Batch of 2 targets.
Target 1
Amino acid sequence: MKGAPPALLILGVAGGALLLLAAAGGGSPATGARRVGGFVHGQIGRFFSWAELTASGAAARLGIDNTPTPEARRAMQALVATVLDPLRAHLGRPVRITSGFRAPPVNRAVSGSPTSQHMSGEAADIKADGMSAEALAAVVVGLGVPFDQVIWYAPERGGHVHVSYTTTRKNRGETLHAPAAGGYVGWRPRRGASASS
Ligand SMILES: [Zn+2]
């Protein structure tokens, strides 16, 4: 067994039974977050869980710890409160997180941008069943909430919407499309696009 055992506080011995309290890591009590075995449990906001925003197939496959730092956790809370919860409430249907927080080794494993906002907890990739990525992106923009980037990806590149929000500088409100051919092009939602699904 390599590495340090989980930190335990021995509270006392009563009737031969050890009373142990796991020294859980610094989750915010306000959102019920707690860390157990490297994972963060509980809800981030109204609709989303830490598990959804930290799940990573690459991390699981490669055995990489994808636990967000306290700074990343605060960024994720802000992203959920400002964009994802209002979006979910507006849509009235599930918003699936296909990629949320990525620890730097996870981001490298999935060939993410070296400056990806996923590494700081500021970005999530989302899908909504029955909606095209373009229509979902148009709904996000139409919410009127601040965002840094909304990028909808062609089906050939995942068919998801990348949305980010930052608290460290002004949000750019940038809207882009990632076409099948590669790269990024400017994009604005068409009028009425958000009404269709
Ligand atoms: Zn993304």
Note: DSSP finds five helices and ten strands in the chain.
Target 2
Amino acid sequence: MFDKNTYIKRRETLKKLVKSGIIILFGNNESPCNYPNNAYSPFRQDSSFLYYFGANRDGLVGIIDIDNNTETLIGNDIDIDDIVWMGPVDSVKDMASAAGVEQTAPFKELKHICCEALKNKRDIHFLPPYRSDIMILIYDLLGIHPNQQKEKASLSLIKAVVKMRSVKEQQEIEELERAFEIGYLMHTTAMKLTREGVTEKFISGQLDGIANSYGSKVSFSTIFTQRGEILHGAPTMTTLKNGKLVLCDCGGETINNYCSDHTRTYPVNGKFTQKQLDIYSIVEAGHDLVLQIAKPGVKWFDVHMDVCRLMTTRLKELGLMKGDVEEAVASGAHALFLPHGLGHMMGMDVHDMEGLGQIYVGYDDEIQPSTQFGTGSLRMGRRIEENFVITDEPGIYFIPALIDEWKAKGIGKDFINFDALEQYKDFGGIRIEDDVLITKDGCRFIGNKEIPYHPKDIEAFMNQ
Ligand SMILES: [Mn+2]
């Protein structure tokens, strides 16, 4: 965790933004896998709780009473039976003091605090819950049924948290650079291990081990697949085959829970075919275009659309698309190849703050999400600001079921050469992803070195 002044300052800012009422930030509990004492491991704290209270243990709740200017860390100390099995852990008082919180209280006090606040008709601010145990707790404390909790969550608290967590502090950027180092090791190891005959699962397992060894865990379930056209394709027991491309999308979390998220796509045998290069170079150009145009004040929505135009132009040159580029992109025809968005915010959550509602994280009064297939999956559209961290991740995919569906229904028929696509149905998919820090007048990748992505660099790396 950071110095306690970090947490004191953050809570002060939060109080000024939310203005009045009482804020309840719920920490996470252990999450059982197949029986209560076999929980998913390691424990993962809620990111907003971590951001304001820093304490990385289950069963904690943070209270910020704005009107009375008090802060309380709620939680029970563990007893001797727990110490026998798990060893001693910091007391709730120690954890509170490490985050500059003056008061502590046992868990049973929480019900009393909530009852008083309800009785006095005070504004009670909580974030949208995403785990059922917390939903049941909120029902018990505040009487709000789980299916109403999302809409009853505090909009002013959501907006304040988004405002603060979107702009990364210098020490957070340094953590993200550390997360990059773990991601670099994962990706370069994957390239070294890739060869015909090895299973996808073997390599993904090695990568997960690296994330566990150098940080806290993977920042999301590792994608390592020869079926790159499946956007979140889980690794299988399939063995790698020469001639195929493999797509690796993975990242690690530091001990302080800051993430990395990168994607590389490369040939199993370490040498691209011309057909693979034709498609790869389009994704590469789209990925690099972002570096030229992303800077404070620019709408991320426009950056996404610029990449779509570039890809459509190049797919036309290859004979896979046709017609007017502007019209094609306006109609959404390019989404047959790119059905997802260009990128998302990244920080402590790999899709940063997604649980607070993408509409508040990625959009605002000025820019609303599209309802079109493909562009509608863009998680971030609003104007970008200095010290935002966003992923730059264009891709081109040949999804046989989607191609057949569009062809049968005539979707995009004025802009897509369906006949030419027949030869690409076993191609797979390509994505290239890096994490981008928006700087004062432009942007740069997180990390001081490059995970190879230019074809020549990949081939040189894989054949060394
Ligand atoms: Mn990503």
Note: The two ends are 39 Å apart (CA to CA).
